[in-house]
Design goal:
The complex is a heterodimer of chains A (320) and B (334). With 320 residues, chain A is α/β, with parallel strands linked by helices. Chain A is built from eleven helices and twelve strands. The radius of gyration of chain A is 20 Å and the shape is globular. The two termini of chain A are 34 Å apart. Chain B has a single domain, classed as 3-Layer(aba) Sandwich (Rossmann fold). Chain B is built from twelve helices and twelve strands. The chains are: A alpha/beta (320), B alpha/beta (334).
Chain lengths: 320, 334
């Protein structure tokens, strides 16, 4: 059974100009010990989907419908007080932008201990000991327990954030763009670490990123989102071998490959749409090179299973 | 190297002094410096792109700013059309500035939010006194917008930056840089703050413009995939020094310096079937205030030898214009 199941999730932000349909009818699941990659451009709703799972949506965001089942429990049904026992203890998040996600006036170690003290019945010295172990687990020297965030480099801060997410041995870790602000080498270090930890601690993971090559290296399953909708959902291997949705193909072709001699990049024309007033029919049709038929602009394509466990939302998936 | 180079950089150095506290300035006379750029030389020809890669803190952005003299170097020179830009002053310098422009990293912050697109692009023309009448200038602005593929240009002239998307803003920055028809452009991470689907648009635009106008680029980026895509030559910097320099295909297929090898290996490959253990280099880039003695890379180098800790390797040509600063390839140390 899947550890986390998200069914037909709809999350809207109620702004003065009207509701922004940030996540619209999205379903995915994460198995125990598996990693799901959630990919798409900025504004496609990937972070919102993750925050909906944790019930950490900022105002004026609201889950309109759909259910989120974590380990057999529907999270929408439990009161906030109960939900707090889930956060950090059962599922945790590594926030985007490690540079700014740490509190600058508290020591790194204190910030990690805080969660342990809140959730577990331990003394302060035990919490400190465990935080030091966690720091070492992620490759930061334990003497850094007493350092302030500004004394650490970007890579070390990101590692500390990961240590913090692991503080209470959660079952599910959501990592929101864990490597985006980092340099290539440090990025490779952090991703390697996350992969190792995931295998070692049998964690389930949701990795949110816009970089498909990171997903290729770390994830088992991939969900590609476009403008709040699921575009394609399948295992990582099939996505890169046989992408079905034109958007996925566009994304893959838009990546300069460091190994290719005289490569050609084909770009996706246009810009991501406005989610207050999204395009009719398929939301990708104004940018899609295959959308020559009236059905693309008139009818919304349902998410269909094209081949075994390979889902795509395109009227012509499998044919083009 | 070729004689018809557009821009020639020689032994360029930039040290930033570190400000000290009161007590340490009383008790010690020694001035500490950040060795941001430390003795680098290169040439860029007409219609040519030099890709400058490296981690943050390696000095690539400082190099870009030095080359177009946004900041003055500690020593060294930059020759444009045979003239040393660093020696120029006043009107001569100003007229020289028409020849080189820059595109900054973040199009959200490098456009004035209070100026319309027209004002933004017209400003360089006004500063340099180009165009005799307002209508002539307007035509030039429109042409620049069309070059950057913001069409129809009329639709964009009187809009403000906040009305545009990230990709469109970066196109405005490109139009602004091109309106004076420079021969040389510094592109400092022009796509790193843009969305994946937009990046390819901008990279392709830069390549097209080069083919059409013959501009030379200094393309600064930490993303090696895009560096390979746009550059004919590539240089890698580490702590203010160029450690390897070669023609692009040679650079990526036959990289020699251990640091370059690690950088290339660290790039994730979008293919799950070739999933490999990437040789992640341990540690992070050290402080440029007190760079390590000898080869600056030696504390992180997997192939470090004794000589690396004592002597600094020179940038040596190993043939075919492939330059490396590493003792592994210096015959006298073998």
């Amino acid at each position: 059974m899947a550890l986390l199941e998200v069914n037909n999730l709809q999350t809207y932000f109620y702004t003065l100009k009207g509701p922004v349909k940030a996540v619209d009818n999205v379903s995915f699941s994460v198995e125990k010990g598996a990693a799901l990659g959630l990919a798409g451009e900025s504004g496609c709703g990937k972070t919102t989907a993750a925050l909906s799972v944790l019930r950490l949506l900022p105002f004026p965001g609201k889950v309109v419908s759909g259910n989120i089942v974590f380990d057999g429990q529907d999270l929408a049904e439990i009161p906030e007080e109960e939900m707090r026992k889930y956060r950090w203890k059962r599922m945790s998040i590594v926030f985007q932008g490690a540079m700014n996600a740490l509190n600058p006036v508290f020591k790194i170690g204190e910030q990690i201990s805080e969660g342990i003290l809140l959730h577990e019945n331990v003394s302060e010295s035990e919490a400190r000991e465990r935080s030091e172990e966690l720091l070492q687990l992620v490759g930061v020297d334990k003497s850094r327990y007493d350092s302030y965030p500004h004394e650490l480099s970007g890579g070390m801060r990101q590692r500390s954030m990961i240590a913090m997410a692991l503080a209470c041995n959660p079952d599910l870790v959501i990592a929101d763009e864990p490597a985006t602000a980092l340099d290539v080498i440090v990025q490779a270090q952090v991703l390697k670490l996350m992969k190792e930890l995931q295998e070692k601690l049998k964690l389930s993971m949701i990795l949110i990123t816009h970089d498909l090559s990171i997903i290729a290296e770390t994830c088992d399953k991939v969900a590609i989102m476009y403008a709040g909708k699921m575009a394609e959902y399948c295992d990582a291997l099939s996505l890169f071998k046989k992408p079905l949705h034109p958007y996925t193909r566009g994304l893959l072709a838009a990546f300069p490959d460091v190994r290719a001699r005289d490569a050609k990049l084909s770009s996706i024309p246009g810009d991501p749409p406005d989610l207050i007033d999204p395009p009719t029919g398929c939301r990708f049709h104004p940018r899609c090179s295959y959308a020559k038929f009236p059905i693309c602009s008139n009818e919304e394509p349902p998410v269909r299973e094209i081949s075994t466990r390979h889902y795509a939302a395109c009227h012509f998936a499998g044919e083009i | 190297m070729s004689g018809d180079s557009l821009i020639k950089v020689k032994n360029l150095k930039k040290y930033f002094p570190v400000s000290k506290g009161f007590l340490s300035s009383v008790f010690s006379k020694k001035q500490l410096n950040v060795h941001a750029v430390d003795d680098i030389s290169f040439e860029i020809g007409k219609s040519e792109t030099l890709g400058l890669a490296g981690e943050s803190g390696s000095g690539k952005t400082t190099t870009g700013r030095l080359v177009i003299r946004l900041i003055d170097p500690t020593s060294g020179s930059v020759f444009v059309q045979g003239k040393d830009v660093m020696a120029l002053k006043g009107t001569e310098l100003k007229s020289m500035r028409r020849n080189f422009q820059i595109i900054f990293q973040d199009p959200y912050e490098s456009l004035n939010p209070g100026m319309t697109i027209f004002d933004t692009i017209e400003e360089p023309l006004a500063i340099h006194g180009v165009g005799s009448s307002p209508s002539e200038r307007q035509a030039m602005v429109k042409e620049a917008l069309e070059l950057a593929q913001l069409v129809p240009a009329e639709q964009f002239l009187y809009r403000y930056p906040h009305e545009l998307s990230g990709g469109q803003r970066q196109r405005v920055c490109i139009a602004r840089a091109l309106v004076l028809r420079p021969e040389f452009l510094v592109a400092d991470e022009p796509v790193s703050s843009l969305d994946v689907s937009i990046r390819a648009q901008i990279l392709n635009l830069l390549k097209e413009l080069q083919a059409r106008l013959g501009v030379g680029y200094l393309y600064i980026s930490h993303d090696l995939g895009s560096v390979r895509y746009v550059s004919q030559k590539v240089a890698v910097m580490y702590l203010g020094k160029i450690v390897e320099f070669a023609e692009s295909n040679e650079f990526f297929e036959n990289s020699l310096h251990p640091y370059t090898k690690a950088l290339v290996a660290a790039v994730p490959v979008p293919d799950p079937s070739t999933r490999k253990v990437r040789v992640a280099l341990a540690g992070e880039i050290p402080s440029p205030i007190n760079p390590p003695p000898g080869c600056r890379f030696h504390p992180r180098c997997p192939q470090v030898m004794n000589i690396c800790k004592e002597k600094e390797p020179a940038l040596k040509d190993l043939g075919k214009g492939h330059l490396v600063a590493c003792f592994l390839y210096h015959s006298e140390t073998k």
